[in-house]
Amino acid sequence: MVYVIAILAWVIDQGLKWVVRSHLLPDQLVPVLPPAFYFDYIRNPGAAFGILPNARWLFIVVALIVIVAVIVIQRRWHLGVFAQVGLGLVLGGAVGNLTDRVISGTVVDYVYFKPINFPIFNFADVCIDVGVAILILTALLGERQGRTSGRASTPAEVRGEADE
Question: Which pLDDT value is given to residue 160?
Fold first, then answer.
């Protein structure tokens, strides 16, 4: 399930970015749901909020580490449905922005929330944020079902608190 969600997130992300690149000019403000949401096409050479604009290789390495971590977690743990969705969204978002960085050195951002002048972002960013939020919630609520031992563990067994 993790990989299916990741592929769907990546396809949607790259499709939206293609539409933006094909139909908008840079810095062209297009109302989507005025007065709140607009499309505003920019090429972001940095990370969130445009920080570290000249650190392309750092972001590529970080994305690769995230991808490897997701794969390791997915293979090592029996995950519940929500955790799988969270991992899939993080993986798809990371691969989406990594694709942009490798091909052009910048990330296509296009969603602008005007009322609070929020920095422009993209679908991959949303996937990463929502995926991380889901993972935090599932960790707090104890959805994880245990290691790959072949049986589901209780939350106490996962924490090492089970009676022996």
Answer: 52
